[in-house]
Amino acid sequence: MFATFENFEYIFRGGRAPFLGKFLSRSIRLKPIITIGSDGKVKLKKFVKNKRNSIIELYRQIRKDSFDPFSTVKKKIGIFYGTDINPALELEKMIREDSRIKIDELILTEVTTVMSAHTGPGIWGVSYCPVVSK
Prior knowledge:
By secondary structure, the protein is of the alpha+beta class. It has helices at 9-13, 19-28, 51-66, 86-97, 113-119; strands at residues 2-4, 31-36, 42-48, 75-81, 103-110, 124-130. InterPro entries: DegV, DegV_C.
């Protein structure tokens, strides 16, 4: 799972981000890309310059994890968003147009109000997993 949000304000208010992250997000206007590690903890993957670059970064991550020309394994992909559906739609279009990403199912869904309350309304991201044989 990879996600990004407009800024650290909601994350910082809930005590889930260091002050430095809030400072970078606010002053330099960087967008954080976060992921969940194998230990189940949220980790900062990197900062990108703007919303467009965050879309590209999430797309690159899916491509990187899908790059096996001999694999026939398809993926279930879920794209989620808060109040702004546009980045999610753009990412969906990029994924569908890439023949190297084998899709079993692609779901576009709005996040719950609880998640949005903790991350802010500007959250959006992608989650994916391989499909095991049916």
